[in-house]
Amino acid sequence: MVATLPSKIPTMECENSHFLMAQRQLDEIALEMGLSPQLHERLRYPKRSMVVTIPVRMDSGLVETFTGYRVHHDVALGPAKGGIRFHPEVNLGEVAALAMLMTWKCALMGLPYGGAKGGIRCKPWKMSLGEQERLTRRYTSEIINLLGPDKDIPAPDMYTNEQTMAWIMDTYSINVGHTVPSVVTGKPVSIGGSLGRHEATGRGVAYCTRRAVKHYNLSAESPSVVVQGFGNVGSIAARQLYATGYKIVAVSDVHGGVYNPNGLDIPRLLTHIAEAGRVTGFTLAESVNNNELLATKCDILIPAALGNQIRDDNVASLNCKVVVEGANGPTSPEADKYLHEKGVIVVPDILANAGGVTVSYFEWVQGLMQLFWSEDEVNERLEQIMGRACDRVYELSSERSIRPRMAALRLGVSTIAEAKRLRGLYP
Fold first, then answer.
1. Is 117 labeled as catalytic in the residue annotation?
2. How many helices (H) and strands (E) does the chain have?
3. Catalytic residue among 8, 47, 105, 117
């Protein structure tokens, strides 16, 4: 049976480009798979969405009100799992889109989770640490009925970190009357976090990059790499690749970029960033803007910043052989197809940046068992799971002559579809 698009689509989600893009990806693979229209329609929308008002007493003594979100896309395989981001552009459509992508990501990696996402619309860089703590704790109390180690396990995302997770864990634990480390992941090691979690997403990006180079027989002796977004994910991926002989020729952050055709000295660049707080001003490289960086000739481009960075208006300027998506949703569907037609391999986000949720799973398991692993054990298990997922995606892509994104989605969506078929529909 060939899937057909549902006739009714809620206006709220359609007003957001992020959610529409996630839906379009599902629609394309559903048609390719022949997914039943009834199941297809169920997967196009979140299982549940919560929008909360968060009043916070600011340092000035005045009360400011923020808007927060938490969305569960699907929980057929287990509790909901997904990050919480603080950003002024957070909205329900974006959060719902990211929750959907997390569903496919967890299924692809073989993790017993469903997809979730959350966020607060705010400007955390303009808030004091005390204001951020009060914001986080009140948000946690507002969504607490959704949370729990067997219901919904948050993790860090954009502008949130280990400290944010510690506040969420503490707030939840106080409300239930005992300490519950497994209610969040990505928390400090001293209160139950996992060794290797901080580096996991960037390390996973590097694993996928090396696997792609090997699978697609890229002949460069020292592949050249451009990294857009030199934050936690981008910098760790660059450091990992640099250590294994890759040549990092350009990187950027929110302030601008730097370029050296002979390769950047990543350790010295990291020292510069620690002192200056930005990549710009590094004396051993020349400055480039974002458009110049994306157009830089290289073997591998790693977009690890915000979403929707590779679009119709700039995709033709890309000069790379492989795109490895460190960020969520950095490539529009049209740009993805254009790159495929030009012979550029795109390693999709639900595979490339899945290292974070994979080690979050390790942390959750360690917390439930109260039995902790060494960093070497964590990294070894991560490489095994990432390697297996990469091989499945790359091989299916080659066998069916489909884009790697469609191969990854097919593997993830088929897993969820089978789970829903077996569980049936209640009542």
1. yes
2. 15, 12
3. 117
